[in-house]
Design a protein that fits this description.
binds ligand LQZAQKY5; about 400 residues; MoCF_biosynth_CS; binds molybdate ion; magnesium; alpha/beta; Molybdenum Cofactor Biosythetic Enzyme, Chain A; 4 domains; elongated; Molybdopterin biosynthesis moeA protein, domain 3; 27 strands; six-stranded mixed sheet; Molybdopterin biosynthesis moea protein, domain 2; about 20% helix; EC 2.10.1.1
């Protein structure tokens, strides 16, 4: 399939993303977890507040609580009691009386305002208020933060550290969340060695599974690492079968192109079905999406930048849907490009850029330089993608381009 602007035989990026998402079924299994164990899980149900926060009117200052009507008659009131956080004043008070109160302590029913002690003159039980006050001064009203039955978190929300604090403040002890996904990682290639091993002639160090594993950890899935598999049809078939039995999604890198040792697509065809293969994007043309017997499959290209970009732009989006989480939001801006960019029409480019504010206060983007699919350092230096549409040709410095800011998966 091709559109007006994508090279023949290549699926436009947006179509690939849409087709892939159509085929992703979100998981349904839920578990109940204590809130302290729920960080980064996805909520399977909305959370409504069981109470008002704060639960009662309370003082925002250490000082004196009074009724404003009393102060209209005299600036000096008589102290008749104390309200402490956790030990509220239980009695009543009459016109002309006030109550000693501490920050966070419940407001006595007979008072409507508070003055901080720095603005009061104390003479035994006689408290003189030195400044004019307004009704409700320094009073935090019940429910001013959250009201009872108000929705606090929505279904599909990924629970953050702050959310756990909010849940605790509401007295919520457990939450219902979707279970973690299990994702299998496979690196294919005869040339690959693990860091720490000696390299023979023609070898390189395996890096894809390391970076993918780290990004998957940020996505909060359980990674099943199948390590490095040789470019061998039988070995790749065996590992795909085994991974499919254990995982919800299988991700491989390498061997997805058209070389003599590129078996990924053949095995996927044999064991499952190919949704599509080859996208009009750069880097990342030979990306395969499909289904195995039990799991979905993402075949990433071997080149490190291609593997990362396709994982970030496609697989991560699909896995987020599979987790039942709200779709990822990514921030795009139109900014001036200060570098010349090389680009051939036919594929959508995700070039690596550095966004900054220049001396004139203008937000501009510069290229990281060489954009080869093997130059992983170009991604490490970058803080955004310069996204160039399929039909776009070279860009001259000074032109406006679209940039997508890196999210926390890439930092
Ligand atoms: N005749 C053609 N050749 C190629 C095409 C094409 O359309 N026709 N596409 C090119 C593009 S674009 C890409 S991207 C690569 C993708 O190839 P593969 O997915 O088959 O990847 P490999 O050949 O296995 O490896 C490519 C490159 O990446 C290195 N690599 C592989 N795995 C890892 C890893 N886990 N960690 C670090 N580096 C890895 C590998 O050593 C190669 O250098 O195909 C082009 N060719
Ligand atoms: O897609 Mo390849 O990633 O252009 O090098």
């Amino acid at each position: 399939m091709s559109d007006c602007c994508s090279a023949p035989g290549l699926l436009p990026f947006e179509n690939a993303l849409a087709r892939m998402l159509e085929q992703i079924t979100p998981i349904t299994e839920t578990i109940e977890l204590p809130i302290k164990d729920a960080l980064n899980y996805v909520l399977a149900d909305k959370v409504l507040s069981p109470l008002n926060v704060p639960p009662h009117d309370n003082s925002a200052m250490d000082g004196y609580a009074f009724s404003l009507a009393s102060l209209a008659k005299s600036k000096t009131l008589t102290l008749v009691g104390r309200s402490m956080a956790g030990s509220p004043y239980q009695g009543d008070c009459q016109p002309g009386e006030c109550i000693r109160i501490m920050t966070g302590a419940k407001m006595p029913d007979c008072c409507d305002s508070v003055e901080m002690q720095e603005n009061c003159q104390v003479d035994g039980e006689q408290i003189t208020f030195l400044k004019d006050k307004q009704l409700g001064s320094h009073v935090r009203k019940a429910g001013e933060d959250i009201q009872i039955n108000q929705q606090v978190l929505e279904k599909g929300h990924r629970i953050s550290a702050v959310d756990i604090g909010v849940l605790a403040s509401l007295g919520v002890a457990t939450v219902t969340v979707y279970r973690k996904l299990k994702v299998a990682l496979i690196a294919t290639g005869d040339e690959l060695k693990l860091p720490g091993q000696a390299l023979s002639e023609g070898d390189i160090y395996e890096s894809n599974s390391f970076v993918l594993s780290a990004m998957l950890e940020k996505l909060h899935v359980d990674v099943i690492d199948f390590g490095i598999i040789k470019d061998d049809l039988a070995a790749i078939t065996d590992v795909f079968v085994s991974a499919d039995k254990q995982a919800d999604a299988v991700i491989s890198s390498g061997g997805v192109s058209v070389g003599d040792a590129d078996y990924t697509k053949t095995v996927l065809d044999e064991l499952g079905e190919i949704g599509f293969w080859k996208i009009a994007m750069k880097p990342g043309k030979p990306f395969a999406f499909g289904k195995l017997a039990n799991s979905v499959f993402f075949g990433l290209p071997g080149n490190p930048v291609s593997a990362l970009v396709t994982f970030h732009q496609l697989a991560l989006v699909a896995l987020t849907k599979m987790q039942n989480a709200k779709p990822l939001t990514r921030t795009s801006l139109q900014v001036k490009c200060v570098s010349d960019l090389r680009k051939s029409p036919g594929r959508m480019d995700f070039q690596r850029g550095i966004l900054s504010v220049n001396e004139q206060g203008e937000t501009v983007v510069a290229s990281t330089g060489s954009q080869g699919s093997g130059i992983l350092s170009s991604l490490a230096q970058a803080n955004c993608f310069i996204v160039l549409a399929s039909e776009q040709g070279h860009v001259s410095a000074g032109e406006t381009v679209s940039v997508q800011l890196f999210d926390h998966y890439l930092h």
